[in-house]
Amino acid sequence: MSVSSEITDSVKKYYGEKLQTSDDLQTTACTTPAQRMPKHILESIKLVHDEVVSKYYGCGLVVPECLEGMKVLDLGSGSGRDCYAIAKLVGSNGFVTGIDMTDEQLKVANKYIDYHQKLFKYPEPNTTFVKGYIENLKDAGIGDESIDIIVSNCVINLCKDKKRVLEEAYRVLKYGGELYFSDVYADQELSDEIRQHEVLWGECVSGALHWQTLYNLAKEIGFEVPRVVTCSSLEITKPDLKEVVGDARFASVVYRLFKTHKDSNREITQVVYNGSITGCENEFKLDRHTTFPEGKPVIVSGRTLAILQNSRFKEDFLYKSAPCCATVAEIKEEDPFVILASADSKKLNNGAQCCGSKCC
Ligand SMILES: C[S@@+](CC[C@H](N)C(=O)[O-])C[C@H]1O[C@@H](n2cnc3c(N)ncnc32)[C@H](O)[C@@H]1O
């Protein structure tokens, strides 16, 4: 089925012709907010070629834990910064596929495949870029249950049919896999004036979902409840653009959505993290509420147990029956704007707006 529409054509022009580097952006929507990065991730990002980095338009850090040997798909990979950083971390036994619809972005990404292979000292390139639409991964040759982890950085908002994107992500993920992605969300349904604004659409603002809609879509499609990893507020400062958005507020949020078997064990359980995840030896943070200090028993909800036992994190934990009186709250839907307001009022993060105090 064809995906082409006025919106995709305009987005292609925006990323293919209008923007040359991240300095050309009109808002802060497509730039990563300051946040603490684990050293191994920082080091792998530092290895990525300068030209690739100069065309990075992401809005969050989409490098999850435990990547070694994984098959990763990046939706809307752009010039390939996240793909190459992840290519280093998956190692020579892992593989990264980036998919994008814009020729100019793909051209830059493809130019540096051999460069990174040599730099990483891998016998073969472990990265490929394909041209296609993320609403239709089948046409791009991505098979059912073929991917361990999907990442995406500031792209889904640019698609008209978000449901199709999430359905396709669900289809291609293996059971136990996850969609770990950063995107822009709004605190309200946006007016037609905002939705039809070409620059704001290109800047990842006009296509922002109301945050609640993501939870509804995830449930409908079959994902576990989305987990917030980090969030940060987006300021639109240019007076003409500010006037168009009025009182609408925007946040960039990193979510993780797991695909689990529906008949998984979902009993409250006691787990002990064994410290074996690279970069998270002292503690592993699954989301902003769920942290596992190494060697310490933690009681987890049924949903969290299903995630741990279905996923690549399974072997990083010991599992025991919880004491009979144990209770624990399930992760629920979270309004990112409430998270940000509470972070502001508590002056968390020493004045920074990102509310992921640590990345793992
Ligand atoms: C904001 S940029 C982000 C690029 C990259 N993820 C990064 O962090 O630098 C959005 C990218 O998504 C791509 N894109 C937008 N809609 C798409 C779609 N429906 N299918 C494939 N690629 C798409 C654009 O071509 C562009 O390269």
UniProtKB/TrEMBL annotation:
What would you give as a GO molecular function for this chain, any one?
Answer: arsenite methyltransferase activity
- What's an example Gene Ontology biological process for this entry? toxin metabolic process
* Family matches, as InterPro entries: Arsenite_MeTrfase-like, Methyltranfer_dom, SAM-dependent_MTases_sf
Question: What's the catalysed reaction?
Answer: arsenic triglutathione + 2 [thioredoxin]-dithiol + 2 S-adenosyl-L-methionine + H2O = dimethylarsinous acid + 2 [thioredoxin]-disulfide + 3 glutathione + 2 S-adenosyl-L-homocysteine + 2 H(+); arsenic triglutathione + [thioredoxin]-dithiol + S-adenosyl-L-methionine + 2 H2O = methylarsonous acid + [thioredoxin]-disulfide + 3 glutathione + S-adenosyl-L-homocysteine + H(+); arsenic triglutathione + 3 [thioredoxin]-dithiol + 3 S-adenosyl-L-methionine = trimethylarsine + 3 [thioredoxin]-disulfide + 3 glutathione + 3 S-adenosyl-L-homocysteine + 3 H(+)
Any one GO cellular component localisation term in the record: cytosol
Q: Where is the signal peptide?
A: none
Q: What is its EC number?
A: 2.1.1.137
Answer whether the UniProt record assigns the keyword S-adenosyl-L-methionine to this protein.
Answer: yes
Q: Which UniProt keywords apply?
A: Methyltransferase, S-adenosyl-L-methionine, Transferase
Instruction: Output the PANTHER family linked to this UniProt entry.
Output: ARSENITE METHYLTRANSFERASE
Q: Which family does it belong to?
A: Belongs to the methyltransferase superfamily. Arsenite methyltransferase family.
For this entry, the protein name equals Arsenite methyltransferase
Gene behind this protein: As3mt-002
